[in-house]
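Can anyone check this?
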Amino acid sequence: YTEAWDADKKTIHVMPDTPTILLAKANAANVSHKLYVQGWEEAKKKGYDMRADAIPIRSAKASRDIASDYKYKETHEKQKGHYIGCRTAQEDPKLSWAARAMMLQNDRIYRKAYHDSKAQVHIPVDAMSVQAAKECQTLVSDVDYRHYLHQWTCLPDQNDVIHARKAYDLQSDNVYKSDLEWLRGIGWLTEGSVDVVKAKKAQELLNERLYRTRPDEMKFTSITDTPDVVQAKINALQMSDV
């Protein structure tokens, strides 16, 4: 099967300058890793010369000095003990400002004036606010709200006494429920009650037998010679197997 193909492979010749061959060679050169790193490998073989005063070296050193904590604090450490300025802390504006800010932030000093003056307040006893507070206390006080009834000394046949007894009897829970005492122990049938009547009416509304009337219960006489009856008979005869 492959004998003819093997023989043809030896006779086919493609020109090396055809566009397809040139394109394949260009693609092979582009994807070749060896050609990609060839320049770098040759540069490594030649070596390099990096001077100490080169711009990248100086930039790296400057970045290292800036990032170094020691270099960052070197100027501050040198200035310690050589401060020349005000003789006292009160004369220095920055220190005075810092002390003032600390006093403002101190909660104890902030409340000192209030604690010193809160015991020196004198309010007259007849002030409007004091009188209003007393009235409110009287209104919300439970002791003043409840005044227990004391024993009155009066004649039992006075009109106000009779009226008061009548009012007390009307307000009394025992007297209010005394007319229901005779109902205790008496049986009660639910027949005729509102709920039972309502349930019966709902049952009648939902009853299928009362809602729909059966056709056999309806009294009617069918006319035998109507067109629909005659047509039905003809259709029945045509569809009859007999």
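Reply from J.R.: I decoded it. The chain has a mean pLDDT of 80.
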